[in-house]
Amino acid sequence: MNYFGRIFFNFIGASIRWIFGTIWRTLSNKDKFTFDEYLYGPKKNANYYDEMGHQFNNKIIGGIFFFVLIIIIQKIF
Description:
Largest sheet: none
Shape: flat
Structural class: mainly alpha
Helix content: over 70%
Distance between the termini: 26 Å
Radius of gyration: 14 Å
Number of helices: 3
Number of domains: 1
Mean pLDDT: 85
Low-confidence stretches: none
């Protein structure tokens, strides 16, 4: 589970956050973050807890996405 929690869910969650964040920031004319900032946290911040928070959010979003995907697949088949 450690592999899925640290790699898989973090990457999936960061991808989802990056897609929605890019769309939202484009529509609101704000500066966009890079994918690495969504994955690892902001580069300009020396706060270690901010990095942990980003990865935690990514894992939660990735887990929810994976759970919903499994439910959808079960409903189809």
